[in-house]
Amino acid sequence: MEDLTAGLSDKPVVLDESSRQVDWARSFHGLSTEAFSKEAAGALLAPVAPEDIEVKPDGIVYLPEIKYRRILNKAFGPGAWGLAPRGETIVTSKAVTREYALVALGRLVSVARGEMDYFAPEGIPTAVEGCKSNALMRCCKDLGVASELWDPRFVRTFIATYAKEVWVEHQQTQKRRKIWMRKDDQVKYPFKLYTPPSPGGPARQAN
Length: 207
Description:
The chain is α+β, with helices and mostly antiparallel strands. It is built from 4 helices and 10 strands; from the N terminus they run αββαββββααββββ. Strands 3, 4, 5 and 6 form a 4-stranded antiparallel sheet that branches. The model has no long low-confidence stretch (mean pLDDT about 90).
């Protein structure tokens, strides 16, 4: 397998100055020239359905990246938006990062740097794809997509209503810790639900 830890050598193609095509690796063409249509704005700014929001074990709430793509497709139509790389992929010993531009209807909308950790060299290709999705999520913030997820009051209310903190035990290592999850979710492998002992009583594991 090719060693990717030294970098991917994937700099964007720089177009000739006389080219009639926009060079999205450098251009800011169309940025803030006019608002999008009311229909597009309605799709972008629509409230996020609670059932679409996920909860990470550390209590961070997020919208899966595929749902950002669905929102953009609804607002602009498939093929009318895209991510253009603005630089080469940087591969460090633990992470992958790259800058992208979100382009919609032929206009630059936002620029953001994506990043994604990896744990072994064979995981770099997957991290590269995750880095792109991370950049998409960050670019969508400028369009107001899922803006509730950066509102502390909304997050506190969502956690109190839809999330719970539970004790779990790792089935291989037997290490125990607390995690956050949606109230309507199940504890997934390799963890299992653990019930701490009551004062003076033995610990027990939930089936």
